[in-house]
């Protein structure tokens, strides 16, 4: 249960005061799984039985943010796990392929951000050909990326950063291969290599004008701009599309994600022309094109219906899910039976013997009138 980024020094600090056989360099053995990733397990050789007992007393204590399970073991188990580690390491060295799969990257992440995150590790070529950020058909990030490194040490350095944070999100990093990279790139249409210099801004103040957008991206070469409106074409939907002259400027624009425009912070996402026209303007969300809206730019769908649970037996009606319950037992509203009956269990408003109390003028749980006796109530 040790953190995946732990080093022999971290383990030695956790076991401070104990005599490690051969020192932290030779007495602390970190293991890896068959994929070459840190397994979260390590073996520590101590010089005497007394130190072993002291180490066992640290069971369930914390190393960083994780509590660690400490148990007694033997040399046979250690050698078995270490053999798996050495085999995985040898296979990795023989393959000559050093690829890391990164999951959980922020939606505004760029190739430069990943290069900076893995600072100290050498890329296979450069960021344009060795960093692959996967995108969907809308041009948005899927949260997954692949990074190709030049050598084993660089890859191990990257794998050691598993569960480290990029901004507010932690990343899951594991060893991968060319086959997986190719398959996942094909699955998303290889959009990682077909990025357009188009972004979508969301969360704009409703009074935002095109001039405000140009000022917000001052210093960048904006080629075209489209404000998005509701399906009536008059009310701003709080978002816009911006096309830049090149991907360099669009990447700079993505870094403004989370900055404020007026009193609101703006969300900025990668996009493309297909999503811009087919999904937004073509669907009516951008105003100029006819049709029903989409998302927060107008929703056009038939309301669902469901049985009114407060309807009088035999008089059930269908109520829309976006309206108050109507019909014979509407809450606090007009109808053949106005309001709701008093809660009988609390003794308020009479009982079942015909006394007063079923006038619907007070609070309580809804009841259904019985079919036989008009004075009979069934609590629901």
Question: How would you characterize this protein structure?
Answer:
The chain is of the alpha+beta class and about 375 residues long. About 25% of the residues lie in helices and about 25% in strands. The chain has eleven helices and 20 strands. A four-stranded antiparallel sheet has the order 6-7-5-10. Strand 1 and strand 2 form a beta hairpin.
Keywords:
380 residues; alpha+beta; 4-stranded antiparallel β-sheet; elongated
Q: How would you summarize what this structure contains?
A:
By secondary structure, this protein is of the alpha+beta class.
> Beta fraction of the residues?
15-25%
Helix share bin: 10-25%
Query: What is the helix tally?
Result: 11
Poorly predicted residue ranges: 283-380
Output the strand order for the largest sheet.
6-7-5-10
Which value, in Å, is the CA radius of gyration? 32 Å
- Main beta-sheet annotation: 4 strands, antiparallel
């Amino acid at each position: 249960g040790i953190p995946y980024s732990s080093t022999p020094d971290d383990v030695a600090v956790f076991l401070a005061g104990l005599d490690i056989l051969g020192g932290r360099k030779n007495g602390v053995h970190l293991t890896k799984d068959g994929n070459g990733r840190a397994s979260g397990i390590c073996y520590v050789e101590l010089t005497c039985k007394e130190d072993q007992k002291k180490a066992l007393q640290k069971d369930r204590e914390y190393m960083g943010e994780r509590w660690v399970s400490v148990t007694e073991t033997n040399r046979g188990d250690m050698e078995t796990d270490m053999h798996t580690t050495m085999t995985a390491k040898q296979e990795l060295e023989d393959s000559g392929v050093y690829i890391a799969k990164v999951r959980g990257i922020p939606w505004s992440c760029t190739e430069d951000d990943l290069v900076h995150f893995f600072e100290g590790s050498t890329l296979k070529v450069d960021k344009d050909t060795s960093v692959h950020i996967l995108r969907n058909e809308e041009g948005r990030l899927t949260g997954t990326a692949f990074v190709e490194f030049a050598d084993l040490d660089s890859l191990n350095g990257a794998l050691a950063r598993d569960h480290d944070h990029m901004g507010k999100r932690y990343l899951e990093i594991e060893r991968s291969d060319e086959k997986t990279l190719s398959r996942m790139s094909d699955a998303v249409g290889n959009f990682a290599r077909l990025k357009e210099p188009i972004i979508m801004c969301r969360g704009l103040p409703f009074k935002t004008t095109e001039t405000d957008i140009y000022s917000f991206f001052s210093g960048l070469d904006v080629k075209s701009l489209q404000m998005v409106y509701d399906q009536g074409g008059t009310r701003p939907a709080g978002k816009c599309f911006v096309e830049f002259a090149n991907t360099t400027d669009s990447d700079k624009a993505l870094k403004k994600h989370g900055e404020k425009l007026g009193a609101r912070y703006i969300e900025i996402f990668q996009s493309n022309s297909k999503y811009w026209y087919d999904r937004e303007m073509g669907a009516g969300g951008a105003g100029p094109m006819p049709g029903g809206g989409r998302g927060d730019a107008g929703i056009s769908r038939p309301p669902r219906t469901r049985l009114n649970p407060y309807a009088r037996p035999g008089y059930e009606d269908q109520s829309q899910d976006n309206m108050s319950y109507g019909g014979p037992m509407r809450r606090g509203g007009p109808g053949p039976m106005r309001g709701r009956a008093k809660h009988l269990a609390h003794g308020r408003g009479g009982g079942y013997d015909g006394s007063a109390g079923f006038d619907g003028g007070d609070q309580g749980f809804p009841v259904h009138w019985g079919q036989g006796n008009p004075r009979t109530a069934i609590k629901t």
